Amino acid sequence: MKIINITKVALLAVASMMLLPAQADYPEKPIGVMVAYGPGGATDFQARIATLASGKEALIGQPIYILNKPGAGGRTGWNWFAGEASQDGYMLGAYNVPHFIAQSIVFDTKYNINNLEPLGNWGADPAVLIVGKDSPFNTVGELLAHAEANPGAVTISGAGKFVGHHIAFLQFAKASGANLTYIPASGGVDALRMVKAGETVAGFNNLSDSARSAADLKILAVADLTRHAYLPDVPTLMESGVDVDDSSVNFRGLMVPSGTPQDVVDYLASKVPAMFNDKKTQGKMKSTNSPSRVMSRDEVITMWNERQAYLTELLAGLK
Amino acid sequence: MEFLNYFDNVFTVYHIALLVGGTFAGIILGALPGLSPTMSVALLIPFTFHMKPESGLILLGAMYTATVAGGAISAILVNVPGAPANIATALDGHKMAQNGKAKNALHYCFISSFVGGIFGVFILIFFTPPLAALSLKFMSTEMFWVAILGITIIATLDSKSVIKGLLSGLFGLMLATIGEHPTNAVERFVFTDHLESGVHIVVGLIGLFAMPQVWNLLENFYAKKNRVFSATGDATLIQSFKLVFSKLKALSIGSIIGSIIGIIPGAGGQIAGIVAYDQSKKVSSNRENYGKGEPEAIIAAESANNSMVGPSLIPLLTLSIPGSPTAAVLLGGLLIHGIFPGHDIFTKNPEVIWTFIDSLIIAQILMLIIGLFLSRHSKWIMKVPDNYMAVGILLLAVFGTYSIQNNYSDVLIMFTLGTLMYFGSKAGFSPVPVVLGLILGTMTEEKFLLGNLIGNAKGSSFQHFTSGTINIVLISLCIASIVYGVYSSRKSKKIKA
């Protein structure tokens, strides 16, 4: 009897020792962030800026390093993250919405919003509708009138398929009813080149990059619910009479794979937004023209669910 | 002559230390397979995070300059190009090393890299506004024809027969179609998850060049055929300088072609090197020696891939359109420091930009000095026994391949391609057309599909591809290249018969 009790107690003690300290001491070593795009790109350098302050004791208390796993428009990295990344809180991932949600709807991916847990959001880069500086069009109305007279002739470039720009295009085409042609370039930079060179009639591109290139472009509208502080004079698409909401806005933030212990998730969710709000980080975001929007875990969960529902409907015919 | 005013910003102890360190590290990193210029600059960007903008850019610029030249060292000494830009250098460079003239080859390489590099930076300093306008004229259709021009020379490059060249080029083109479709994002030929991201160009490069070399070295070792190098060359510096400057035709063809390709968005050194090699071969009086260790070939290829550096920054700085894959990564480096490309960049950030450009000139000079110094020690590498060499290349190949995308699948692809290539080379196939097929296939397909979409929207795709001055010039060059290829192969057959 006694022996059994002692064994039970010992077993319990061992079990509790195995369970507790792992989480109580978290984090005790540097933490990785997987970025599904190559080094030097916007997601990569924003992830580096957003996690600059992680080493501070009051924040996460451990430095963060970036692990780039580019390929297949982000699918390689996210597939690895959902399928193979460790679930102990030492490997976080950077998400791009609507990209990963759209891909999980259209393609057979290992990831979807149900096996990933968001921690917080650091940035939001809306898509803008742009034309070259020598373009005859000055408003969304003029562009659509031309499209009406010449069905299919209005080409609009964007950074590939099933990314924010493509979603903005699909919404724009659906809401305006116009017959437009989407040109999926091999990235945002090449899509922007096409508009500057006059190769395409128009383009959807990142607000941050377009605002920087304002001398070579005319920015007709912002695909967001409100005007943007960087471009106070540019109307939203809704103001221009086309019913397009903020579903194409490129949200960036951090997540962990499902299966990560709940208290690690809670710990990170409480610290990550504060890390994004760090004064030096925010200064660096501003000086690099990276639009910041810090959101908590709960806000991101809501946003992911909204996007999932909306994109499933929008992309239904495109599988 | 505004650029002269900012040299004193470069000549501070800190900046010179950065330049020397960056150039030295760049040459070494460039020589390692996998750490291509693009990769090295990308890895360095986070390190510049906490530096002042001009200091960060100086370091990145030195790295860009030096890695391009460093890739030639491994191309010459072990027949493994450090980056796609050095493929053409390997053709004759390694032959020279086998003939006991490794040091001479390295001399020619660094001197012509220096001449080309300085030429390119001066193009950047004096011709930025007109060339930026020209670079905007290269659209999808023009880039498609540039890629086709490259494809026309695949078959005749380093192959025993035209048929074998065409077959290996075709194999490369087929490799390029694996993975995501460029315009509709559908996966093709992905029968295993390992092929999901397709065959990365540098993974292909390492596999096709480094792996067969590893097997060959081991084969030699077990057959006790250890190669003995009696010499690594006897050239003095003065002789080498004299020789390079006596090959003015190759030098100027390389520098001019490199500069033109530099301003074409996205093309870069990988195309500059082979096009310059091919063009200089066509006009050379020594053309029979190309592929057998001809100094002119090295001079043309290396002056081209280094003269590409300066002009590739022209569209980058003024239009935020990168002229090469490395310039694309450099864009991230500029943005991180709050330097936003634009026509007004020279008036808005003169301190940073002119200091950066001036530092590129100094980096070229340092690259020459350090490169020539290292050339003296090439015998250390040439004397490494085959078995050690094989293991060394193997380790670097695995490490280099994995580091490109932190992806284990790439290592498997590299091994598979390499083993296939080893057996292929026994049957007389060369890796050069395969890699070129892979590089050009990706570009051709993407640009064709995009140009076709745009052309159809305009009414006629055929007309879209065949109108415009640059398109017509490029099409004529393609035709000329094919006609010349057929003509010269007939002529050489007659001579043999």
Structural domains of chain B: how many: 1
- The average pLDDT value of chain B, as a whole number, equals 89
User: Which structural class best describes the helix and strand composition of chain B?
Assistant: mainly alpha
Poorly predicted runs of 5 or more residues of chain A:
none
**What is the multimeric organization of the chains shown?**
heterodimer
Q: Report the largest inter-chain contact.
A: A-B, 50 and 53 residues
Order of helices and strands of chain B: HHHHHHHHHEEHHHHHHHHHHHHHHH
Taken from the alpha-carbon principal axes, the silhouette of chain B is globular
Number of helices of chain B: 24
- Percent of residues in β-strands of chain A: 15-25%
Largest sheet of chain A: 6 strands, mixed
Task: Compute the CA-based radius of gyration of chain B.
Answer: 22 Å
Helical content of chain A, roughly? 40-55%
CATH fold name of the largest domain in chain A: D-Maltodextrin-Binding Protein, domain 2
CATH architecture type of the largest domain in chain A: 3-Layer(aba) Sandwich
Which blocks of ≥5 consecutive residues of chain B have pLDDT under 50?
A: none
Notes on the protein architecture:
- The complex is a heterodimer of chains A (319) and B (497).
- Chain A starts with a helix and ends in a 5-residue tail after the last helix.
- The longest helix of chain A is centred in the N-terminal third of the chain and has 23 residues, at 2-24.
- Chain A is elongated.
- Chain A is of the alpha/beta class.
- In chain A, strand 6 (154-158), helix 6 and strand 7 form a beta-alpha-beta unit.
- Chain A contains eleven helices and eleven strands.
- Chain B has 497 residues and is an all-alpha fold.
- Chain B has one domain.
- Chain B contains 24 helices and two strands.
- Chain B has helices at 7-10, 13-31, 37-48, 53-78, 87-98, 102-126, 128-136, 140-152, 162-176, 201-222, 237-246, 248-263, 269-283, 295-307, 309-319, 325-336, 345-348, 350-375, 378-382, 386-405, 408-426, 431-458, 461-466, 469-496; strands at 179-180, 187-188.
- In chain B, a hairpin with a 6-residue loop joins strand 1 (179-180) and strand 2 (187-188).
- In chain B, helix 6 (102-126) packs antiparallel against helix 18 and helix 13 packs antiparallel against helix 14.
- The model of chain B has no long low-confidence stretch (mean pLDDT 89).
- Chains A and B meet through helix 2, strand 2, helix 3, strand 7 and helix 7 of A and helix 3, strand 1, helix 16 and helix 22 of B.
